[in-house]
């Protein structure tokens, strides 16, 4: 990567700038959303050149489904963030995961999947992969590599993880898993939505493929669905890219443009989310209603040492188990006034999700039985207001 030595914030402030008009010598700062279905070629030689370039694994703008300059600018940003060589944008984070599985696995093949992955991955398995004759084995996110190795079969091709995990934010040891994958000939892929290439870079730690839901911190404003698959190896990437082309996924230039706009401020947003989240952790850890705090940046978290070793920061995410009855937990969540009740995260606003016992049942890392788990995304609101809101909701819940 030509820009890999630049600090990420500097890179993001300048990447994908609009080129100067060759005649007038002026340019807007931002590349406009370049919408296209048909792409016109000046002559047949240009068309043939684009086709040759694509056949060699290049990235020409030759038809709307691939996207034009706006798409290429965002792809280049994902490559830089993740320190990868290849990027394919996707219509959502879940589509990125689906393309990864569909691209890398054939009928009769098998994948090992950490039990802490994004919930809808289980639906991908039930609704699609099983029907296609692909088999998935879940393993506990805190299993030692030696334990995971025992689950490898002759037809195992993929080791798929998410770290920190969805809901409980447990850290997994990517370098150790990469060593296992290399030794046993598996592809190691990871969901890096949490890190989004800013605070965590799994490809540098040995993963082959990283997927990011750009919907979250990349776009950052709760109004875009987008994803990306990033890889270093051409053969691995081409399997995914060809599958994506075969199913006809296309991403709107307007969405790409919004993501380009959003990602420029990702460092300042994420740093602020992180500061606010750590302030909220200090508050929650001292509250008698809180049983346990889940956040690898929190020094008492079991994943803290791995976080210190492998991550360069944190974000607005955390979870708390509460010594509440189910009714009190509902009352707590519904009493919050600054937190939206809803899925997804990474926008500027605070969000809360009451995790259902059914969702937790899949997670071996969860050891707190019937306690309520609440996941919080701490937004950019003043943390004093956020803490006041949490305080009144905890007090209200206790009266339930
Ligand atoms: C939200 C999320 C996804 C899915 O992204 P969408 O764009 O909503 O489809 C995937 N992985 C993780 C970890 C997520 O949090």
Record keyword descriptors for this entry:
single chain; 400 residues; alpha/beta; Aspartate Aminotransferase, domain 2; Aspartate Aminotransferase, domain 1; 2 domains; 7-stranded mixed sheet; 12 strands; 15% strand; binds pyridoxal-5'-phosphate
Short description:
The chain is α/β, with parallel strands linked by helices and 400 residues long. The protein has helices at 8-14, 44-55, 69-82, 93-104, 120-129, 145-150, 174-184, 234-247, 253-263, 266-285, 304-310, 326-335, 357-361, 383-398; strands spanning 86-90, 110-114, 135-139, 156-162, 187-191, 209-213, 227-231, 290-294, 317-322, 340-341, 351-355, 372-377.
How would you describe this structure to a colleague?
With 400 residues, the protein is α/β, with parallel strands linked by helices. The protein folds into two domains: 5-263, Aspartate Aminotransferase, domain 2; 266-398, Aspartate Aminotransferase, domain 1 (Alpha-Beta Complex). The protein contains 14 helices and twelve strands. The chain has helices at 8-14, 44-55, 69-82, 93-104, 120-129, 145-150, 174-184, 234-247, 253-263, 266-285, 304-310, 326-335, 357-361, 383-398; strands at 86-90, 110-114, 135-139, 156-162, 187-191, 209-213, 227-231, 290-294, 317-322, 340-341, 351-355, 372-377. The chain has a seven-stranded mixed beta sheet, sandwiched between helices. Strand 2 (110-114), helix 5 and strand 3 (135-139) form a beta-alpha-beta unit. Helix 3 (69-82) crosses helix 9, helix 4 (93-104) crosses helix 5 (120-129) and helix 12 (326-335) packs antiparallel against helix 14 (383-398). The longest helix is centred in the last third of the chain and has 20 residues, at 266-285. The chain is globular. The mean pLDDT is 96. Bound molecules: pyridoxal-5'-phosphate.
């Amino acid at each position: 990567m030509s820009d890999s030595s630049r600090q990420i914030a500097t890179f993001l402030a300048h990447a994908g700038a609009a080129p100067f008009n060759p005649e007038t010598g002026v340019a807007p700062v931002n590349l406009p959303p370049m919408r296209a279905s048909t792409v016109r070629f000046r002559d047949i030689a240009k068309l043939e050149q684009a086709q040759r370039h694509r056949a060699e694994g290049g990235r020409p703008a030759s038809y709307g489904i691939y996207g034009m300059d706006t798409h290429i600018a965002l792809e280049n940003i994902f490559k830089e963030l993740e320190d990868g060589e290849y990027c394919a944008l996707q219509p959502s984070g879940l589509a990125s995961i689906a393309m990864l599985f569909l691209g890398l696995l054939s009928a009769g093949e098998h994948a090992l999947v950490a039990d802490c992955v994004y919930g809808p991955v289980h639906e991908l398995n039930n609704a699609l992969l099983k029907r296609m004759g692909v088999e998935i084995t879940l393993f506990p996110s805190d299993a030692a590599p030696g334990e995971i190795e025992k689950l490898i079969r002759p037809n195992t091709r993929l080791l798929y993880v998410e770290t920190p995990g969805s809901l409980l934010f447990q850290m997994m040891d990517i370098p150790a898993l990469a060593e296992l994958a290399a030794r046993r000939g598996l592809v190691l892929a990871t969901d890096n939505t949490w890190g989004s290439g800013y605070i965590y870079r799994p490809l540098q730690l040995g993963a082959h493929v990283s997927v990011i839901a750009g919907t979250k911190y990349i776009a950052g404003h709760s109004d875009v669905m987008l994803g990306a698959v990033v890889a270093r190896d051409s053969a691995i990437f081409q399997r995914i890219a060809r599958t994506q082309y075969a199913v006809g996924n296309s991403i709107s230039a307007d969405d790409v443009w919004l993501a380009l706009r959003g990602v420029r401020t990702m460092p300042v947003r994420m740093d602020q989310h992180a500061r606010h989240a750590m302030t909220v952790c200090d508050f929650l850890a001292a509250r008698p209603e809180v049983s346990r705090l889940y956040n690898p940046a929190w020094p008492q978290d079991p994943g803290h040492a791995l976080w210190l070793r492998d991550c360069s920061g944190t974000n607005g995410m955390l979870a708390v188990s509460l010594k509440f009855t189910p009714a009190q937990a509902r009352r707590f969540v519904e009493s919050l006034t600054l937190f939206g009740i809803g899925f997804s995260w990474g926008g500027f606003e605070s969000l809360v999700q009451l995790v259902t016992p059914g969702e937790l049942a899949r997670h071996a890392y969860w050891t707190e039985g019937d306690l309520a788990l609440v996941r919080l995304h701490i937004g950019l609101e003043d943390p004093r207001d956020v803490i006041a809101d949490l305080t009144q909701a905890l007090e209200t819940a206790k009266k339930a």
